[in-house]
Amino acid sequence: MITKDDQVLNLLGLAMRAGKLVLGSDSTLTAIRGNKVQMAFFPSDGGQSQSKKFADKSNFYHVTLIQDYTKTQLTDAIGVNRSVFAIADRGFSRKIKQLISEKERN
User: Fold this and answer.
1) How far is residue 74's CA from residue 6's CA, in Å, rounded to a whole number?
2) What CA–CA distance (Å, rounded) separates 32 from 72?
3) Three-state SS string across the chain, please?
4) From the CA atom positions of the chain, what is the Rg in Å?
5) pTM value?
6) What integer pLDDT is reported at residue 1 of this predicted model?
7) Residues of the chain with confidence (pLDDT) below 50
8) Residue pair 40/32 in contact by the 8 Å Cβ criterion
9) How far apart are the C-alpha atoms of 28 and 23, rounded to whole Å?
10) Residue 70: how many CB atoms within 10 A of its CB?
């Protein structure tokens, strides 16, 4: 049985291959400020000050911030050593939001 988390992580890999991810802290913050992304990922085991910065920016610019996954899970999912990134594609963002809300319901 494939879990919702597995499905989300698989979708991140697809988004990466499709070239729809903005990688790294600075690029992600710039994309959030420029309203270029709908969803950002920050590792659950990331630094506290960075975590707060991303949470504040995401709230202010109405970007969904996902902090459900560890650095290792995120890195493995996209195949690059980056655990902070954003999705610059409405379709991927919508599908991931849907999976996460289904996960929270169950």
Assistant:
1) 11
2) 23
3) CCCHHHHHHHHHHHHHHCCCEEECHHHHHHHHHCCCCCEEECCCCCCHHHHHHHHHHHHHCCCEEECCCCHHHHHHHHCCCCCCEEECCHHHHHHHHHHHHHHHHC
4) 13
5) 0.95
6) 87
7) none
8) yes
9) 6
10) 14
